[in-house]
Amino acid sequence: MIDVEGDVVSEDGAMKREMLELWRRDPVECMAELIGNPTLRDMLAYVPEHVYADAKGEGHIYDEMWTGDWWWETQVSTYC
Asked: 42-66 pLDDT, tens per residue?
């Protein structure tokens, strides 16, 4: 537990304080849990994807990280 001073002033003019409980986890184990979770299977993307508003390939849609140009350029340049 740690005692943290916030940025909100209380009624008595002092800064509000709060006791916080911090948790630590191994990030590799966390990622393994997320990737291995069957509930999330259809929600994870491993390859970049170009998404367009129409069949002609016009109107590039950027709505997820894997639809962005950076991911495409980075992953494609890694394998070429």
From this structure: 888 888 888 999 999 889 999 998 8
